Amino acid sequence: MRSFGVARMPQPTPYDRQNSFSLHSAQNPSSPQRGTDLDIEFNAVKVSLDETQGNLKRIQSDDGRLAPGSVGRDQLDSSITIGFKSPLPWTTDTLYTVDVSTVFNEAKFYTALETHTSGAVFDASKWRLVADLSVAAALPDGGVTEAKIADAAVTSAKIATNAVVNSKIGASAVTTAKIADAAVTLVKMAAAVPAQLRDLILPAGLGPLPWSGASLPDGWDWADGGVLLSDTAFPALRQRYIDDSFPHGQDGSGNPKKPDGKGRSIFGKDNMGGSAAGRLTSAGSGVDGTTLGATGGAQSVVLVQANLPNVTFATAVAAGQGSHRHSYSVGQSAANGFETGPNPHLGSNAGTNTGFATLPAMTGTTPSGGSDTAHNNVPPALVCNLIIKAH
């Protein structure tokens, strides 16, 4: 039978009488007891007493109480159960019996000091601490590896709330196969994890992009042409523009500027990818489309004659508008003849006259108009903020 930790002790040597003093006196009434016989007798007594005392010391403390570990389950009668009831987790509204009930609470083992019904909170004054297992229950950092966990062995019911932290998980211990589908939600991730994923998917420098909100979203900055100093909250964006040779300018001290999108439209770089498309050129638009960060354009322009197509203006004159007539009288007389009747004219040489109508040369002008006023150069617009990915 197991002793459950109680060490076995040898039985003390029984005291056996070595001599009969009364017999010696009867047989030798005038002779004294021999010293050797007395020594032998007392020595036998001493051996038995010493061994008995030695065994007593193993089961009795100096204060007279039973020594720790001197009594185990095997030393008790089967009818005795005080203090040996199987411990259960402590619960509320439960009747506990003094010296009988045993519980676990927060990795500590207790026995009841008094009979009572538990309340909403564990009352340590009603319990005797038997053992503190919290230290023994704690696993060393990195102690749980994939090889130590059977497939599907760790369920949600086996893990205390907030018990699993990074320092308790060995490197590469948790693989995809060890995580149940849909078990890891965004709520269970640290705040830094979504941000890290966002920064991997959306790199610093993305944009400028339209933003319809009034305030910046987390991880973004305004495309306002501002300077990124060395103490900026966006070191990744600053380094991006430094590595790209300050495409949007600098302040003269090596601090890059952000793109200035205020009041501007965004155009694709004309030669991105290698060859130029010729759709945005200095000659055609006034904007160098092959230079990253180039700016130009205006919201209004004034047309000059060079911007207009060639036009020939004609002046039309209506027929008859330039003709006129002269009136004159011609006297008649007879020559080498005679006249009869009231007014007859007879003669061989009557006078004749010819009249000319003169059309003078004409010129005309077309009056000019306009006032050199600039005209709108902006298409239908929607105003939004422009933002840049900054982390």
List keywords for this structure.
3-stranded antiparallel β-sheet; single chain; 6 helices; alpha+beta; 391 residues
Structure report:
- The protein has 391 residues and is of the alpha+beta class.
- Among the domains are: 1-79, no CATH class; 81-137; 186-272 and 283-296 and 383-391, no CATH class.
- The protein is built from six helices and eleven strands.
- The longest helix has 25 residues, at 35-59.
- Residues 1-5 have low confidence and may be disordered.
Indicate the radius of gyration in whole angstroms: 61 Å
Order of helices and strands: HHEEEEEEHHEEHHEEE
Helix tally equals 6
Total strands = 11
The residue fraction in helices comes out at: 10-25%
Strand content: 5-15%
Please state the average pLDDT score. Answer: 81
Q: For the terminal residues, how far apart are their CA atoms?
A: 70 Å
Which outline best applies?
Answer: rod-shaped
Biggest sheet descriptor? 4 strands, mixed
Identify low-pLDDT runs.
1-5
Structural class: alpha+beta
Biggest sheet strand order reads 1-3-4-6
Helix/strand layout:
Layout (H helix, E strand, L loop, with lengths): L20 H7 L7 H25 L28 E2 L5 E2 L5 E4 L2 E5 L3 E2 L9 E6 L1 H4 L54 H10 L7 E3 L8 E3 L12 H9 L38 H4 L14 E2 L73 E2 L8 E5 L2
Give a brief description.
The protein is an alpha+beta fold. It has helices at residues 21-27, 35-59, 134-137, 192-201, 235-243, 282-285, and strands spanning 88-89, 95-96, 102-105, 108-112, 116-117, 127-132, 209-211, 220-222, 300-301, 375-376, 385-389.
